[in-house]
Amino acid sequence: MDSEQQDSKSKGGKGKFRQFLVNQLSAMVRLTVYKTATMPSHRIRNFIYRRILGIHIEKDVTVYYGTEFRASWKISIGAGTIIGDQCILDGRNGIEIGRNVNFSTGVWIWTMQHDYNAIDFSLSPKGRVRIGERAWLGPGCTILPGGTIGRGAVIAAGAVVSKDVPPYTLVGGVPAKPIGKRNDNLNYIFKWAERARYL
After folding, report:
1. What is the DSSP letter of 184?
2. Is residue 102 within 8 Å of residue 137, measured between CB atoms?
3. In angstroms, rounded to a whole number, what is the distance separating the alpha carbons of residues 183 and 149?
4. 91: β partners
5. pTM of model > 0.85
6. Contact residues for 43 (Cβ-Cβ < 8 A; gap 6+)
7. Phi, psi of 116, rounded to the nearest 5 degrees
8. What is 44-64 written as a DSSP string?
């Protein structure tokens, strides 16, 4: 075997080993997210989310059971926000959540998806999702990549949002369309101490 073949074989081996390590680390992060989501304490969950998984979480944030974070270090959550149980937040292209936002049970936010026209089924370059202050995301709604949910907007249960939602607008359906307006003088603030501490 000449030196070029040995170099090529050596580089191939290093690449496979590197990919093996990346896969193992990714699996450990997913396992940490999964195990953390089932711990019966907001304090412990928020500590792990902040200190180990790198989520930027402001004060008075509540994350309920079973929430799954992907690329957690690219997610920021504003003060007083409530993340309901069984939500999925895909932070691969970034998620910015404002203050006093309410996520009901089973909200899914995606920042990447496959391009159905791509011959190799590759991922679309669409990206970051932004959610304004005091928005309310109803149970089982889905926010697709690249969308902005305006301040005080309401997403109805089961809606699929594929475009920006203007402030204080109620949207519903698949795909989501405006179906009403919301008060524009909201001033409520969610306080963590007012909610159950061990759920």
Report:
1. S
2. yes
3. 16
4. none
5. no
6. 197
7. -65, -15
8. HHHHHHHHTS--EE-TT-EE-
Distance CA 54, CA 95 (A): 13
**pLDDT tens digit sequence for 138-187:** 999 999 999 999 999 999 999 999 999 999 999 999 999 999 999 999 99
| Separation CA 160–CA 9 (nearest Å) | 48
- What is the rounded average pLDDT of the residues 52-73? 91
Sign of the torsion angle spanned by Cα atoms 110, 116, 120, 121? positive
Sign of CA dihedral 101, 139, 73, 61: positive
User: Could you tell me which of 116, 84, 78 has the C-alpha nearest to residue 100?
Assistant: 78
Amino acid at 39: M
Q: Which residue has the tokens 């959610």?
A: 131
7 backbone dihedrals φ, ψ, rounded to 5°: -60, -45
Give me the sheet containing 142-143, strands edge to edge: 68-70, 88-90, 108-109, 142-143, 160-161
Q: What is the pLDDT of residue 12?
A: 63
Partners of 146 in the beta sheet? Answer: none
How many Cα atoms within 13 Å fall on the side-chain side of residue 161?
34
For 1-60, the DSSP string reads --HHHHHHHHHHHHHHHHHHHHHHHHHHHHHHHHHHHT-S-HHHHHHHHHHTS--EE-TT
DSSP 71: S
What 8-state DSSP symbol labels residue 150?
Answer: P
Rounded Cα gap, residues 81 and 89, in angstroms: 14
To the nearest 10 degrees (0 to 180), the angle between helices 3-37 and 42-51 is 160
